[in-house]
Amino acid sequence: MRLTIITSITGVLVLLYILELLRRQQLREKYAVIWLAIGLAVAPLGFFPDLLDSTARRVGIASGVSLVLFAGFVMVLLVCLHLSWEASRLEAETRSLAEEVALLRSHLVEHHGYPVSKQNKAETADDTEVYS
C-alpha cells in the first residue's frame, strides 16, 4: 500500500475520531479547534503530497513531505508546551481551591460546630486543640 494512501486514511480517521470525541463531549471545544485545524490542513496533503513542494523549495527544504514532517514536529512541541502550561495552571488552581476549602472547613468547625469526620480527625491529630 502506498504511503500517500496510508497517510490519507490515517488523516481522515483522526478527523473522524476528533469529531466523535466532540460529539460525546469528551474533548473540549478549545482543544478540538486546534486538532481540527491541524487535521484539515494535513489531510489534503495525504491525498496530494506534491502540494507543498514549491513552498518547500522556496524555504530551502528538498521536498514538501520533509516540510510537513518538520512542521509536524514543531506543532507537537508546541502542543506539548501548551499542555504543560495548562497542567501547571490547573495544579496551581487545584492547590488554591484545596487551601480555600481547608480554611472554610476550619472556620465552620470553629464557629458553627461543623462535624469533623474521622478521616479529618486522623489527619489533624496534631491540631486537635483547634478543632475541639
Automatic annotation (TrEMBL):
Q: Which Pfam families match?
A: DUF2304
Task: Write out the entry's keywords from A to Z.
Answer: Membrane, Transmembrane, Transmembrane helix
For the keyword Membrane, the answer is yes
**Transmembrane regions listed in the UniProt entry:** 6-22, 31-49, 61-85
| The organism's place on the tree of life at top rank | Bacteria
Know the name of this protein?
Answer: DUF2304 domain-containing protein
- The organism encoding this protein is Kitasatospora cineracea
What is the phylogenetic placement of the source species in the record?
Bacteria, Bacillati, Actinomycetota, Actinomycetes, Kitasatosporales
